[in-house]
Amino acid sequence: MENKGKVLMQKYEFGRLLGQGNFAKVYHARNIETSQSVAVKVIEKEKVLKVGMIDQTKREISGMSLVKHTNILELYEVMASKSKIYFVMEYAKGGELFNKLSKGKLREDVARKYFQQLISAVDFCHSRGVYHRDLKPENLLLDENGILKVSDFGLSALTECKHQDGLLHTTCGTPAYVAPEVINRKGYDGAKADIWSCGVILYVMLAGYLPFHDTNLIAIYRKISKADYKFPNWFSPEVTKLLSRILTPNPKARISIEKIMTNPWFRKGFNSKPVHNKVEKALVPVDIDAVFSSEANNNAFEAKKDMAKLTNLNAFDIISLSSGFDLSGLFVIPIFRLGLTNRIVTCYYN
Ligand code: ATP
Ligand code: MG
């Protein structure tokens, strides 16, 4: 394993590879000082960065506050070398939620518990103007106590590209969790698109299989667009009713998060006590050019001074690094095909 045993920033000793996505590899690592386990997501800049597009309008974002939520994977710090970006984040020891499904569908009360946690996380982010846009099993992790942790909140700028590719290359996987309006590229409401994905996730937990499946992508797209699916006979009438309201193709007619949270099936056993705390931190603006272009050492495992470091950021900060909560400025990826503009390149450290 290429990184095993290496020490990042004299602080994190790399262990085994936990998983691999389209843009990143995720490693287990240990904080040498505290022995705390963390996960480090390593992104090859080259894969996501279009050189020459860094010189964009810069804007400072002030008065940012750091927020945490029990069901959102915490991002501890972000570092960058010349060629890579490192996201040091909470380690989800329990792995992917959907590994549980390999043993079969979940009981309704178990599925409801996860769905409640998922909706809590999504509601929390939506109320702050942050949309996930890539809710899918790989991004639903569990900690050592079996608590759901949603990962990659706000990192969806990276996956926009993949969705685009997904239309062109079937190897990019199934769009099974994506809302019809996203597939149709009509321009969409991020909140409603996330709700659709939550509905597909709930369906899969209860059924043990996808609501929309077929032998080819076009057929799957067609089914999604028409919400062409059936409920297995073991789904209760209450959950069937709720899912019908979520898996509604017209986003305007689709149920809102607020309504989901007042739904009787959803509310059963729901612990609605506050699950987040807010920590205010002083943030000092710094030019992100240092991170992207420049003198940062090519070898990420070099001394601290060679690394550009963005410290004490969580997912919201990363999102906030770019205007409109759009990461396309931070990760300057070839999104021009999607007609998105590149944005802000100002960020903070302390
Ligand atoms: P995408 O390319 O859309 O991000 P992905 O979510 O599968 O796809 P990554 O986010 O790179 O890819 O993660 C790869 C895998 O690593 C995940 O599927 C998960 O199994 C594992 N993983 C990611 N983050 C953590 C974490 N904090 N703790 C434990 N395992 C993780
Ligand atoms: Mg992920």
Automatic annotation (TrEMBL):
Residues 12-266 form the Protein kinase domain. The lineage of its organism: Eukaryota, Viridiplantae, Streptophyta, Embryophyta, Tracheophyta. It catalyses: L-threonyl-[protein] + ATP = O-phospho-L-threonyl-[protein] + ADP + H(+); L-seryl-[protein] + ATP = O-phospho-L-seryl-[protein] + ADP + H(+). Residues 308-332 form the NAF domain. Its EC number is 2.7.11.1. Its cofactor is Mn(2+). It comes from the Eukaryota. Belongs to the protein kinase superfamily. CAMK Ser/Thr protein kinase family. SNF1 subfamily. Keywords: ATP-binding, Kinase, Membrane, Nucleotide-binding, Serine/threonine-protein kinase, Transferase, Transmembrane, Transmembrane helix. This is non-specific serine/threonine protein kinase. The keyword Cell wall biogenesis/degradation does not apply. The chain crosses the membrane at residues 193-212. InterPro entries: Kinase-like_dom_sf, NAF/FISL_domain, NAF_dom, Prot_kinase_dom, Protein_kinase_ATP_BS, Ser/Thr_kinase_AS. ATP binds at residue 41. The keyword Kinase applies.
